[in-house]
Amino acid sequence: MKEAHQCSSCGGFCKKSGCERANVEAPPTISDYEKLRIENARLKVEAASFHMNYRMKCDIETKKLEEEKHRLKTALYKIRQEPSNTMSDSKALKEIIRIARAALGEKS
Description:
Blueprint: H1 30-81, H2 89-104
Helix pairs in contact: 1-2
């Protein structure tokens, strides 16, 4: 009759030559799946947050560009009206330059 040999490594009944389960990975446990589910949910929230922040930044930049466009249109309108005023040509040109610099945010 063969004598059963209980393995000191895994507690199972392995051959005397060595543990049969030494190189076998344990099947994932419920806690491993739970960890993956939580990590997946965290990544989804992180991605949604990133996209929301990106969209807010884009909206802010769009608003700034629209304000700049309006400011430049107003300056262009003033420049177009300037020659029809009663000023001399040199004064009109200086006023046009002043309006353009103001629109671009430059100091005179």
